[in-house]
Design a protein that fits this description.
With 86 residues, the protein is mainly alpha-helical. α2 crosses α4. The N and C termini lie far apart (50 Å).
Length: 86
């Protein structure tokens, strides 16, 4: 190993190109129709949403599966809608 590579750890970037699949699976897993805000809170794992607590959505397997900021989740969701996936 050369002197300039010692102690350098390569950072791997997560491939998020298939995140829309988790969105579609979440829509199938949630037992009732949801709006954008509830879906985003579900994907982000937001316990503060009363619908998540009242309907025990936090017990579903995909709860919190996309721990992104709300803006990023909105972009993913809008992209899925624009591509007629939802």
């Amino acid at each position: 190993m050369s002197d300039n590579q010692e102690g350098i750890i390569k950072e791997l970037k997560r491939d998020d190109s298939l995140d829309y699949i988790n969105i579609l699976k979440a829509l199938n897993e949630i037992p009732f129709s949801v709006g954008k805000n509830l879906l985003i809170d579900f994907l982000a794992g937001n316990f503060k949403n009363s619908s998540i607590r009242d309907n025990n959505l936090d017990e579903l397997s995909l709860f919190g599966c996309l721990n992104y900021k709300k803006e990023r989740l909105m972009d993913l969701l809008d992209n899925a809608i624009n591509n007629n996936l939802i």
